[in-house]
Design goal:
Elements: H1 5-25, H2 28-40, H3 47-54, H4 58-70, E1 74-79, E2 82-87, H5 92-114
Antiparallel strand pairs: 1-2
């Protein structure tokens, strides 16, 4: 029988490191803003453009952009007095989430095989 204690402890650490990101993505308005920014591509969008496309109020969009930015899911580029928001092209957090899901899948598979 395989010892799962260390891999499960490692998985718990990964969950802890990404807990804020999961919370951030739990809000439908932030999901809507994030997918809008994905469609915009690398050039990004200004708050007014996001407001028009999402039909959210300007204060709501600004609030959610700050949360997404603080969670390192989006970035801000300044061009003079204009601010352009875009998805983090390095996708650091998303890659960490993918790694977490891959580890979960491997552990489930290993556990099933071990218990057959």
């Amino acid at each position: 029988m395989k010892d799962f204690q260390e891999p499960l402890h490692s998985l718990a650490d990964e969950f802890h490191q990404l807990s804020e990101s999961f919370t951030v993505f739990g809000d439908e308005s932030r999901q809507q803003i994030f997918t809008t920014l994905i469609r915009a591509g690398c050039s990004g969008l200004r708050v007014g453009e996001i407001t028009k496309q999402t039909h959210l109020s300007r204060p709501a969009v600004s609030h959610h952009l700050k949360i997404l930015k603080d969670a390192k899911l989006i970035k801000l580029d300044k061009l003079g007095t204009m601010n352009f928001y875009h998805v983090d092209t390095e996708r650091t957090i998303i890659k960490k989430m993918q790694t977490l899901f891959n580890h979960m899948d491997m552990l489930i598979t290993d556990f099933e095989e071990d218990n057959q």
